[in-house]
Amino acid sequence: MVRPKKHLGQHFLIDKNIARKITLCLNEDNPVICELGPGTGVLTEFLLERSNLTSLKLVEIDSESVEYLQTNFSDSRLNIFERDFLKMNLTEISVQPFALIGNFPYNISSQIFFKVLENRNLVPEVVGMIQKEVAERIAAGPGSKTYGILSVLLQAWYTIEYCFTVPEHVFNPPPKVKSAVIKLQRNNVEQLDCNEQLFFKVVKTAFGQRRKTLRNALKPLTAGIILQHALFDKRAEQLSVADFVQLTQYIESQEA
User: Fold this and answer.
1) Which residue in 98, 43, 107 sits closest to 69, CA to CA?
2) Can you tell me the distance from the alpha carbon of 239 to that of 221, in angstroms, rounded to the nearest whole number?
3) Same domain (yes/no): 142, 109
4) What is the DSSP letter of 169?
5) Residue 212: C-alpha distances to residues 56, 168, 186, 216, 235 (Å)
6) Which domain holds residue 210?
7) Inside any domain, residue 218
8) Residue 4, pLDDT score
9) 125-131 and 179-186 as β-strands: parallel, antiparallel, unpaired?
10) How far apart, in whole angstroms, are the C-alpha atoms of residue 124 and residue 114?
11) Same-domain pairing of 239 and 173
12) What contacts 24+ positions apart, CB below 8 Å, involve 55-60?
């Protein structure tokens, strides 16, 4: 069967050494794995070699790719969903925790990570190949110009590891941007020590005007509040996750 065409910003990985290296980033003790956007199955074949694997779920929106996968892969542990991952209830994939892996479509990679964040207790581990710039942003720490909303929110519940950079020539067609593999591992934080809904609002509002001090950037959330905390004199990129939690606690206490 003819290989499927590129779709939804997807660039197919054709280097099997890189494919194996990506799958090896996943912990060995994951019995249930979901591969997002498997395309031609270059990661799939290595995932099926894993001795601890009991179930591999493939989520693929492209019908040509689904037909290719059904024709070329036959394994009792394999389930293929012809679905849009962003629109799925992830319990449809598995009611037990599962690791997520894939060559994520670059134009929706941030949305994928926000979806993971919403389902953080169902997805304890993620290994994704994404645009290098986005990977650096997610892994960045306070004080970095690339540190932003996604950095803070993901780091609140996941340990982030920038695994390795992937050259352009290992894809067909080669992307115009550099790629990287990043790993997210769920940390021990069950619940933040603050109002989590307000925490999300504080982080997003703070970085909405990142050049301003938080005293000015957070005005939409702090009307009528006395801003005595020293953190208000800093900019969003200077605050750690713990600082944002502390700031959220302060705003919540003043609203009470």
Assistant:
1) 43
2) 17
3) yes
4) G
5) 46, 37, 32, 6, 6
6) 196-255
7) yes
8) 53
9) antiparallel
10) 14
11) no
12) 55/31, 55/79, 55/94, 55/98, 56/32, 57/32, 57/33, 57/81, 57/93, 57/94, 57/98, 58/34, 59/34, 59/35, 59/83, 59/85, 59/88, 59/93
Classify burial at 73, counting beta carbons within 10 Å of its beta carbon; exposed 0-12, middle 13-18, buried 19 or more: middle
Both tokens of residue 84? Answer: 């849009």
Contacts of 175 (CB under 8 A, 6+ apart): 11, 106, 131, 168
Low-confidence ranges of the chain (pLDDT < 70): 1-10, 256
Structure tokens at 141: 């720490």
Pair 152, 92 in one domain: yes
Per-residue pLDDT tens digits for 132-172: 999 999 999 999 999 999 999 999 999 999 999 999 999 98
**Per the structure, how many domains does the chain have?**
2
Q: How far apart are alpha carbons 71 and 88 in whole angstroms? A: 24
Kindly give the pairing relationship between strand 171-172 and strand 55-59: unpaired
Q: Residue 61 is encoded by which pair of tokens?
A: 């929106």
Residues contacting residue 223 through CB under 8 Å, at least 6 positions apart: none
Question: Taken in order 150, 153, 155, 157, is the CA torsion positive or negative?
Answer: negative
| Residue linked to tokens 């900019």 | 235
Residue that has been written with the tokens 């019908």 in this structure: 63
CB 244 within 8 A of CB 221: no
